[in-house]
Amino acid sequence: MAAAGVAAVAYFSKPSAFVPGPFRQSAGPLAAVSGVMMFGSAASAASVEQAAKKLADVSYPMVKATDWATTDVLDKYMASVPTTKEFSKAILELSVKLDPKLVKDAVQAHKKALDATGPDFVTPLKNHEEVTVALAKMFAAAPKDKIKAVFDATPGVQDLNAAWYAQMPQADAQATFEAFKELAAIVKESPEKAVTPVAAPSMDGPIGVAAKKLADASYPMLQKIDWASTGVLDKYVTNTPANKAGISALLDAGLAMDPKVIQGATQAHLDAVSAVDGQLLTPLANHEAVTVAIAKLIASAPPAKIKAVFDTVPNVQGLNVDWFSTMSVPDAVKSYQAFLETAAAMKAR
What are 80-105's pLDDT values in tens digits? Predict the structure, then answer.
């Protein structure tokens, strides 16, 4: 089940929009390409909203032309490009600086858009506009250097751009890129909104004690994993089509979690990534902090919301079998027992 939780994060983190440009250097996935939207100091929220709405309207033909259930280009990219410390750290350094309210607004917009999709996963234009506006506002308030760092640290982004762009109607792609540049010019002048830092959750209380024990029991398994290329998880992400019920459940759970605990858990992950060695393995103390943070994060949401996520993760049993078949049996058994104790502590909270 612990592996399924990791899989859910990776599986459901496929982006909902992609903005290709006419040249390989020009654009990337919305989450990364927004890195070029930076630098300056003062634009109105109304201008950001208007430009974002225009981008949504112009890009909608490409949204309709994309197979959101498989997104082959992105799946191949995720399966073939190893992660890097620099990229993970850049993502987390940006995340801890995002305005929690604007993040929640963006998640809520995605949830509404998903609920309105049909079997092809294409949302109505109005919802696409709301998602684009919410993301633009979120990035407009973020530190510009942190967003640029994500774009700069994305491995193989030029090849990804070229492969994605080649699949798109060229006239639509060009018009979208022009609208994107207009939005970028406005967003790069937007003032940063300061975010109060939140420390990683403490290890006290029954949940903290149990989660620390789980971290200690599972650490030998972490030491044996190739974190740069997690084959089982990559295969799962590549071969498992998107699942509307699962994505909806994950967004529901995220919206129900305590925003401050989310910030603290993100900080724990940033601390852990900052401390990794050349094999991307973090020290035991950081693994403990991350495990406690995740346990307290999950415990901050209603149990029914969390159960819905696990119930709707596609092929979770097959994933668990594949994942644990690569592990030492004694280590896996010990970890599972500690996991059950943590789950019991969370249930009794």
Answer: 787 889 999 999 999 999 999 999 99
DSSP string, 216-272: HHHHHHHHTS-TT--HHHHHHHHHS---HHHHHHHHHHHHHS-HHHHHHHHHHHHHH
- pLDDT given for residue 145 in this prediction: 95
What's the N-to-C CA distance of the chain in angstroms? 20
How does pLDDT run across 254-265, given as a tens digit for each residue? 999 999 999 999
Closest CA to 108 of 264, 7, 256: 256
* Structure token pair of residue 165: 């762009």
Q: How far apart are CA 154 and CA 230, in angstroms?
A: 18
**Does residue 225 surpass a pLDDT of 50?**
yes
Place 45 in a pLDDT band, splitting at 50, 70 and 90: low
What count of other Cβ atoms lies within 10 Å of the Cβ of residue 202?
Answer: 12
- Residue span(s) of the chain under CATH 1.40.10.10 come to 2-10+197-347, 15-187
CATH tag, 2-10+197-347: 1.40.10.10
pLDDT bin (cut points 50, 70, 90) of residue 193 is very high
- Could you confirm whether domain 15-187 is CATH 1.50.10.100? no
Residue 289 to residue 175: CA distance in whole angstroms: 46
Model confidence over 8-21: pLDDT tens digits?
Answer: 333 333 333 333 33
Q: What is the dihedral of CA 87, 67, 250, 136, to 10 degrees?
A: 60
The DSSP-derived string for 56-116 is HHHHHHHHHHS-TTT-HHHHHHHHHS---HHHHHHHHHHHTTS-HHHHHHHHHHHHHHHHT
Cα(150)–Cα(266) distance, integer angstroms: 16
